[in-house]
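To: structure subgroup
Subject: Chain for Friday's discussion

All,

I'm putting the inputs and outputs inline so they're searchable in the archive.
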Amino acid sequence: MITPPQRDGTVSPDRLAAARIAGAHEIYRVSGAQGVAALAFGTRTIAAVDLIVGPGNAYVTMAKRLVFGKVGIDMLAGPSEVSIIADRTARADSVAAELLSQAEHQGGTATLLTDYEPLVQAVLRDLEGELSALPHSSAARSNLAQTGAIILAPTLEGCAKLANRIAPEHLVIMTDAPDSTCEMIRHAGAIFVGHYAPVAVGDYVAGPSHCLPTGTTARFSGGLTANTFLKGSSLIRYSRQALEADAPPICRIAEAERLPAHARSVQIRLQQ
C-alpha cells in the first residue's frame, strides 16, 4: 500500500486501521505519479509489483496509463459522477442533496433524469437552498454550472435509456417501483436502489467496492473487486488418440493460415 503522509510525516490512524483490516503488510509513505512509478519499476526500498489499483487525481490516472503493460491496472477513473432517475414519489430535497454529494468533488458531474415536470423546479429551488448552507459551495456551484443537467423525459423508460447512454459511475433510482426501474438498466458502475440508498452508503459502509468506472466506461467494465486480483490459465491435456482425431482440422487450418510449422508440430508427434 502507498499513501500520502500527513504534514507531520505520519500516516493517519484511521488509514492504518483500514490497512490492517484489509491485510496490508507493507505501507509506504508516497503517493502521486511518483508513487505509481515506484510501484511499477521498483526502487531501492519498494519492490516492483504486478498490479496497481485504486483511485487518484489526474496525475495518478495518467501515470497509470503510462505504466500499463509493464504492470496491470484496474481502470482509468475520472471525476465522480452521479445520475438520478426520479419520479413523482421522489423528494426534491433528497434529490438536490444527492446531486450535490457528487458535485462537491473536484470536477464532479451530476445529472437528474425525471418524467415528472414539477420535480424540476422543486429540485432547482432546493439546490439553491442546499448550496447556500454548504461550506465551500463555490466548487459545487461551478461543477453544476459546467457539467450538471436536469433532463425531463416523457417516461421512466426514456429516463432509463438516457441513463444507459450516460453509463454513470453512480446511478441512484428514486422511483415508486425501483426494482422495475433497475431492470431497465444495462450500464452503470454501481446502482443505488430506492429512496433510502444514497451514494454515501456505498462510499463508506455498504460493502461493494467504490472504485468504479467513469466517463461511460461502465458500458464495458465494472468496478474494482477481489476478482481484479485473480487471473486464469488454460490447462490443456491431450492423449495420442485425441491428437490423432484432431490432427486433420488442425493441419487444414494451419495450411489455410500458411503456417506449416504449426502443422508439423502436430504431425511429428504422430510419427512412429
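Points worth raising on Friday:
The mean pLDDT is 95.
The chain has eleven helices and seven strands.

D.
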